[in-house]
Amino acid sequence: MALAPGDNATLFSAGAASTLRLIVYLAAAVVLMILDHRGHYLQTVRGHASLLIEPLYRLAALPGDAARATRTAVASQTALAAENRELREALLLAQARLNRAGALAAQNERLQDLLEAQKSLGLSVQMASLLDIDIDPARRRIVINRGAQQGVSVGQPVIDASGIMGQVVEVLPNTAVVMLLTDPNHAIPVTIERTGLRTIAYGDKDARDLLELSNIPTSADVKVGDKLISSGLGGRFPAGFPVGEIRDVRNDDTGMFATALATPAAAISRSSEVLLLHDLPQPYGPVQPQVDASAPPGADAAAAEPAQPEPTP
Amino acid sequence: MNRLRAQSWLFAGTVLLAMLLQLMPLPAPLLQIKPYWLALVLIYWAIETPDRVGLGFAFLLGLAGDVLAGQLLGEHALRLTVLAFIVLRFRARLRFFPVWQQTLAVFALLLNDRIVVMMVRGFSGEAMPPPAFWLSPPVGAALWPFVFILLDDLRARLRGREA
Q1: What is the ipTM of this complex?
Q2: Is A56 on the interface with B (CB under 8 A)?
């Protein structure tokens, strides 16, 4: 070693770093290691020294523990927030699924009703779904997902499980527009079931989703709760279908006639599946001069949709 | 007398602190580069107070380290003894080195220590350590100036209070 002469003598404490001692200590260490390697005495020594070691361990672990504690305190805040958000999303999703399941059940019920209606009617019908509700308050029209390509033609009555909804007024290749009974421009010949009084139910001009029976003779027997059924006059609608129920009767402004308001029997604003009737009933009215398969027969004045031109060619 | 006692407290405190730091749990990525605190403290005291720190003390400190670490009895003892021997041999120079040169010397010492560890592990048939094993000496050397200045300052304060 490149030690300056005298280094040992002057600056080192006597023999502190003598090679001999080094060798002794190294030998001791090596012997210890070999013994421990063979016999694993260290575990025993540690067992005896545990009283001394463990406090040291605890002490050494303190900062780490504190750090971990603060980390969990801080991290758990964000983690909790994230978890909360996730749970809320999951809840929303579950709620949506539940609603969807409920909607499916309701739809199932409605479809079954429709099926039953179809079966009991023995009619050739075509089912259609609502595409969009035309919420223009002045016009009560809906769009269905069947059109000319599916054989829909203008004038076809549209019913749902509980009654007549309206009629097709416009046919597009794959969709059709249905004028509802409650459209102000719509009129349907009806009979009051109880008395057999024939009259016409117009759409409600005030957009209340009601039917209006105007110009009823004051002498006529019309009561609240009377059922309206289609009379079949005019030939557009089949006879005997529920149309509505009288809910209000009063004299009109002139005092010469009575006016009644009726609630539609069909779930006008709730149905999402409708039936299109194909086989039109035998017209009660005068026979159509020309027979055309595409045109609905019996378009006399009492029949519906005064605003709509007849599609006779 | 009082002064000596204060010095003794400081000495014992630093040794204890070194043990604690040696044991202190660290995040897994930092675990590999944990500096050899015992060695740093031992080097300091060997340079400054060789009358207190001889090979015997190094050996005992190493044994304590072994007991704490629980790996192989005698491993730390061997390492620290070697370290103390070299420091004591070159104490005269190390003591008057500027800090940066001291740092280099400490780096060499710690590197040597790693080689000793490798030898011990090789003889005892353990697997070779990962590459991160070699990151400990630079970290220890980088910490050396702080350790040195801090301990020197503490000692100076103690001395100043006494005086």
Answers
A1: 0.79
A2: yes
